[in-house]
Amino acid sequence: MATPNKNQITKKALALHKKLGGKIRIVPAAPVRNRADLSLVYTPGVGYVSSHVAKNPKSARELTMKGRTVAVISDGSAVLGLGNIGALGALPVMEGKAALFKTFADVDAVPIVLDTQDADEIVETVIRIAPAFGGINLEDIAAPKCFEIEQRVIEALDIPVMHDDQHGTAIVVLAGLINAMKVVKKDIQKSRIVVAGVGAAGVATMRLVKKFAPKAIIIAVDSQGIVGHSRIDLNSTKAKLLSDGIIDGSLEGGLSVAVTGSDVFLGVSQPGVLTTEMIKTMRKDAVVFAMANPTPEIMPDEAKKGGAAVIATGRSDFPNQINNSLAFPGVFRGALDNQVRKITDDMKVKAAVAIAKLVAKPTAVKIVPDMFDKKVAKAVAKVIK
Amino acid sequence: MATPNKNQITKKALALHKKLGGKIRIVPAAPVRNRADLSLVYTPGVGYVSSHVAKNPKSARELTMKGRTVAVISDGSAVLGLGNIGALGALPVMEGKAALFKTFADVDAVPIVLDTQDADEIVETVIRIAPAFGGINLEDIAAPKCFEIEQRVIEALDIPVMHDDQHGTAIVVLAGLINAMKVVKKDIQKSRIVVAGVGAAGVATMRLVKKFAPKAIIIAVDSQGIVGHSRIDLNSTKAKLLSDGIIDGSLEGGLSVAVTGSDVFLGVSQPGVLTTEMIKTMRKDAVVFAMANPTPEIMPDEAKKGGAAVIATGRSDFPNQINNSLAFPGVFRGALDNQVRKITDDMKVKAAVAIAKLVAKPTAVKIVPDMFDKKVAKAVAKVIK
Predict the structure, then answer these.
(1) How far does A146 lie from chain B, in Å, by closest CA?
(2) What is the ipTM of this complex?
(3) Where are the beta strands (DSSP E) in chain B?
(4) Which of A80, A192, B313, B341 has CB atoms 3.0–4.6 Å from A262's, for a disulfide?
(5) Is B31 in Cβ contact with A29 (below 8 Å)?
(6) How do residues B90-116 score in pLDDT, each as one tens digit?
(7) What pTM value is reported for the model?
(8) Using CA atoms, how far apart are residues A360 and A343, in angstroms rounded to an integer?
C-alpha cells in the first residue's frame, strides 16, 4: 500500500532540503557588531565567565547553552520505518526533530549522529559529550539495545535522558487512549488491550498504560505470536514484561487469538497485520490505533468496516494522528524549566493526562489536540517536575 | 598587571551571559507553520530524504546540516590563559566561537565540550560524533597532547580538522609578520626570529613561518630557556622541531641570549617575560609580538622604550590585535565551500598572505585588517582549496 502522494511529497521534500541545505541554523543569541560586543561575547569578557562557571558549575544553567539546549542523538539503527540506515541517513530526521523542538517549545536542540552502533560505545560517547547539554533525547536506536543504553545513560548523568521512540510514543498513545475510552464510554481499568509490536514503542507503551491502569489486561503480540509463559524464545525485555506482571501471558497463539474479545488494539508493528475480520471478533466499539508508519496495520476504512468505533494512525492525512511531537517538546521544556534530573513514570502519566485534557470533548475523530496548538507543550511542561 | 576595566568588563560579561542564557540559538532554517510544512520537514517527507542520503552519502553535503556545520570541540584542558578549567568552564568560549563563526563567515558551529581529557578517549569521541559535521575545530586542548590528537583525528576522518590554537594563531601571526616586515623594510628570509612559548601556538607558528620563509633563522625559547641541541629535557614535539630543521638549536641560554641580535620576537608565552632592556639588544627596528593574554609578555609602551618599531598584542585595546578570528571563520568557510578534506600547510600560508594583502599600506599601527571587515573571511575562504 503506497502512501498517498508519495512521489509528490518525495520530490517536494528533496527539493526543500536541497534549497535549505540542512534544516537548522546556529545563530548568535545577540548580534556581534563591534569590538565592544566582541569583548563581552569573546575575549576578554568570556574569560571571566568561564572562570565563574568553572568555579560554580551550577551557574552553567544560567550562563551557558546548557540551560536551554538538548542533544538529539541517534546511531541510525532504527530510523522511522526505514530500519538500520546508519548515521548519515538518520541525520535529516534528527534535524527535523531539532526544528520541531524549537517550533513547539523554544528548546534549542543539537542533532548528533553516531558513527557506532555498539551499545557500550554509544553509552560512553553520550556521557562524554553531555556537559554542554541540559537534556539528552535518544532517538531511533534499535530495540532491545535501546533499553539498556537508555538505562545506563540515565544512571550516569545528572540531566534528564529520554529515548523518545519509547516514552514519547507511550505518552501520546496513553493520551489518545484515555480520550478514546471516553468516546466509547468504557473503563480502561476493566479493558483488555492488545499491543502488537514489542519493540521500543510497544514495551514503553505497555508499561505506561499499566502504570496508569494497573487493572487493565494487556496482551503483547510480537512477530512470533502472543508473548506468553509457554514461549521459550523470549529475550530478557519480553520475559521481564511477564515477570513484572505488565502483560498477561496465559494465552497462546497469534494476533487473531489475542484480539478476540479485546477492547483495544494498539499497533506499533508492521503494515497490514490487522484485518477487518479480526476486528469483528473484538468487543463492541473497538478502539484501534494502527500506528505503523507510513503504512498502518490496517487502513482506517477497513478498520471501520470491522466495527472499530475509534481509529487512530500515525499519519497526518487521517484523523487522530498519534505523533510524538505532542509530547517530546513539552517534556524537555518542562525538564529544563524545572531542572528535572530524571523523567519519571509519574511525570509521563501526568503528561499523557495533560495532553488528553486539552481535548475538551473527545469524539471519534478528535482524541488528541492539534500539534500546532501552542497549549500542548505548555501543558506538558507544567507537569514535568 | 591588571587588564584595564577588568571589573567593569567582568560585570558586563556576566550580566550579558545571564540575560542571554547562552550565546547561541538553534533555529529552523525555514518556519514550520502547518501540517504541510511538517510533512516535508518531518514525517513522512523526511523519510524519503533519509533513504536518499543513506543510499547516496555524498548528498548529505547538500541535503543536511553537514554541508554548512562544524563542531567546535574542547576538553577544557587549556582554556584561554586560564589553564585546565574543564569542560563546563570551556563552554562559554566555545559558544563565543560559534557566535563568531556565524557572524564572520555564515558557518553554523556546534559547541561540544568533553567530559574526558584522555587523548585516546578524545580521539575516539570526536570520530564517533563526526558524521553530522562538515569540519572539526578543535579548541583549547593542552599541548603536547593536542598535536597527537589533531593528527589522529585528521587521519581518521574525511572532513577537515584543525586545532585552532595551533593553526589559526599561526596563520594570523604570519599575516601580521609579513606586514610588519614590510613596515621595517626587512626581508623575512634574512631575519632572525625568536619564538617564546613552545606550546600549541608556538609550535604551529614556527612551522608555518619556516614554511613561508625557509631561510629565516628561528630560535625557540621555552620556560627552561633556548630549545637547543644541548638540552636533555626536550619532549618529542620539541626534539622534532630540531630534527626537522625548523629551529636553530645551536645557542644555549635564556630568552635574553636568544633575543640579542634578533629581528623579531613572537611571544605566545607568559606575562612580563620580555623587558625593555632585552629589546634594546635586538637589531634595529625590532618587531615585537607580545601575544600572551590578557597580559602580554611586555606592555606596548615599554616595548617602544626599548626601540621596537612594530608592536602587536592579542588585545583589542592596543593597535595590531593578533586574533584568531581573522583566520578560523574563513578557513572553515573555504573548507566547506570547496569540500576540502585536509587543510594543508600550503593553504595556511596562502591564508596568511591573503590576510596580509588586505592591508594595502601597512604601518606600524596597522599590520592586520579589522576583524569586522567582511572581506577577511571571504579572502581566506577563497584560498582554502
Answers:
(1) 18
(2) 0.95
(3) 24-28, 69-74, 108-113, 135-138, 161-163, 192-196, 217-222, 225-226, 264-267, 286-290, 308-313
(4) A192
(5) no
(6) 999 999 999 999 999 999 999 999 999
(7) 0.96
(8) 27
